[in-house]
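Homework help board

Subject: predicted structure for assignment chain

Our instructor gave us this sequence and asked us to write out the predicted structure in token form, then describe one feature. I got the tokens but I'm not sure how to describe them. Can anyone check?
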Amino acid sequence: MTKPKRLLFNAFTMNCVSHIHHGLWAREDTRQLEYASLDPWVDLAKILDKGYFDALFLADVVGVYDAYKGGPETSIREAMQIPINDPTLLIPTMAHATENLCFAFTGSILAEQPFNFARRASTLDHLTKGRVAWNVVTSYLPSAAQNLGYADLPRHDDRYDRGDDYLEVLYKLWEGSWEEDAVIRDLENRVYADPEKVHRIDHVGPYYSVPGPHLCEPSVQRTPLLFQAGSSDRGREFAARHAECVFIASAGRDEIGADVRARAAKYGRHPDDIKIILAVSVVIGGTEEEAQAKAADLRTTLSLEGGLSHQSGSLGVDLGEIDPDRPISDYEFNSAMGFLKSYAAAQPDKTLTFRDIAKRQMSGQWLVGTPEQIADKLENYAARGVDGFNLLYATTPGTFVDFIDGVAPILQQRGLMQTGYQPGSFREKIFGHARLPDRHPGASFRRHS
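My token output:
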């Protein structure tokens, strides 16, 4: 009998009022309004740590969704990912309050020069003792690019070209700048590190010129565990080269995962080097009737305007101005192209419209049912190649508590969810080794004494 595959479970959230299911922040059974305080984050981290979740995954954006109705007013009114705080500043406190839970943060290559980002990530890796991952994004909001000094949002594929250069700088800093035995800590001779073993990188690329050396001594993982969520053709190529965990939405889940793994071979990587992580939303009840009633109650609080503003920004088109019943296959965009194409590919007759997307954004893809029914659905995804899940909340921490109390014990009984933690860094817990494997492209920049 084949041993069941242990799946990964991450809580997916954001350091803001309203993340994905907009309007629910107004309910009394959620702590979303407390986002700017440390208390709810520490409480959530402790809940997840005791519930054997693998990680808390923090999304982020560095711009405002201002495409809908020609401006940001709807987003501001709905608290639709604005206001939003820096996710990385939460991590050290949550890590200090937990023993095993890991933390993934989203960071855009447009938001910060790679030299400074390398120091930020290494600091987090030090402070968490290796329990950190970076979700690499290239940004898709024009307002983000403009606020960061770009005349306009670079073209879609150009952003990934820039990302390749950005990652090469980081690999050189993280993997190659400090040799493994550079740090001596010789108290008698007052030598902390051997300068002969700390190197400039002298990177000159198409987008970045960075002499180095890296300002941080080697951290537990050196390179943090790498997540990536691009689903376009260029995004999949980027993931095949760099990603260790590929985060995908429901649309196109089977095809994207298989395609990324197949492409990885050209970079000398093995399919098992990449985990496919699927986004899911769950509404859980003691009975199916109770679950459906809970979902119906949640839908009464959802905001259609918030959802349309979110989709407008993601797609780069004002959904307040176009025909909502026009098929999405009629359009071409410079933003979340993979997202659109995945949805379109799932509809062979090419009739999927923006109205359909808005409905799905609201609640159309919630998994609603009893703990047993939810566990069955997740197990079915696993049988189709999914390695884990980013669990979206309707209310926080309520959704996560419901999952831990109801679904987790069933998954654990089936061998699909961990009942204890492996020691070590984030990468060790998932792959069994702390550093990038030798066959990862980033490992080629290591110096060998």
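Reply (TA_rk): Your tokens look well-formed. For the description, you could write something like this. The mean pLDDT is 92. That's the kind of observation they're looking for.
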